[in-house]
Amino acid sequence: MTELFISAFITLFVVIDPPGCAPIYAGLTKGATQRQRTVMAVRATLIAAIILLIFALFGEDLLGALHIELNAFRIAGGLMLFWIAWEMVFEKRTQRREERAEKVAATPEVEDVSVFPMAMPMLAGPGAIAAIMLLMNEADGLEASLVVMGALGAVLVLTMLALVAAGPLIKLLGDRVEAVITRLLGVLLAALAAQYVIDGLRGAFLL
User: Fold this and answer.
1) Are 178 and 170 contacting, i.e. CB atoms less than 8 angstroms apart?
2) Which of 3, 119, 140, 206 has its CB 3.0 to 4.6 Å from that of 44, i.e. a possible disulfide?
3) pTM recorded for the entire structure
4) Do 101 and 32 touch, CB atoms closer than 8 A?
5) C-alpha to C-alpha distances, 11 to 70, 105, 195, nearest whole angstrom
């Protein structure tokens, strides 16, 4: 069971990628207070946990009933991520936030990114859904299934901690450095989104 836990943990850690999601989350929550970032990080992690738990237990039956292939998730998730990346690179999110601040005399409303794009498709994306479904299918018996779920829980806890800590670290770098990093991460996120779409198209047309 120890080997199963380690294997499941490594697989889910690589797929969910907490170190990679953290700086992107910091860029998406630019202008939010630390408390708002913490609340959104916890909410995103919990929502992702619920989504992955549902697919772990009922994934194959659910997709089969809806006649939806996993490649469709890859393509749709890639397109949504690309839109977010475009806004990060060209600072459209900052412009929209400033316009909203002018309308709200008090504390400006901070856009909640916990559900989209953090919980879905970044944390509970096609890769994570496919991984948890595969691991659960390979698990033999209730005990093995609980071990896989424990590995998922450990990865999500680390992910939540990484998201919470990302904000202060980026803030220490200053606005200019943060702007450069945000745009760079936007380009990387666009590449990731394109890869999602490519993988989805390849899987849909070549299989």
Assistant:
1) yes
2) 119
3) 0.72
4) no
5) 18, 47, 19
> Tens place of pLDDT for every residue, the chain, 207 residues?
888 999 899 889 878 888 878 888 887 887 788 899 999 999 999 999 999 999 999 877 887 788 888 788 778 878 877 887 887 788 765 565 555 445 433 445 567 889 988 998 889 988 888 889 888 877 888 899 999 999 999 999 999 999 998 877 766 766 676 677 778 877 887 887 888 789 889 988 875
**DSSP string of the chain, one letter each residue:** -HHHHHHHHHHHHHHH-HHHHHHHHHHHTTT--HHHHHHHHHHHHHHHHHHHHHHHHHHHHHHHHHT--HHHHHHHHHHHHHHHHHHHHTTHHHHHHHHHHHH-SSSPPPP--IIIIIIIIIIS-HHHHHHHHHHHHH--SHHHHHHHHHHHHHHHHHHHHHHHHHHHHHHTT-HHHHHHHHHHHHHHHHHHHHHHHHHHHHHHHH-
* Tokens 């953290």 -> residue: 22
Residues 6+ apart with CB under 8 A from 105: none
Nearest to 190 by CA among 91, 117, 115, 86: 86
- Spell out a b/e string for 150-184, using b for 16 or more CB atoms within 10 Å of the CB, else e: ebbeebbebbbebbbebbeebeeeeeeebeebbbe
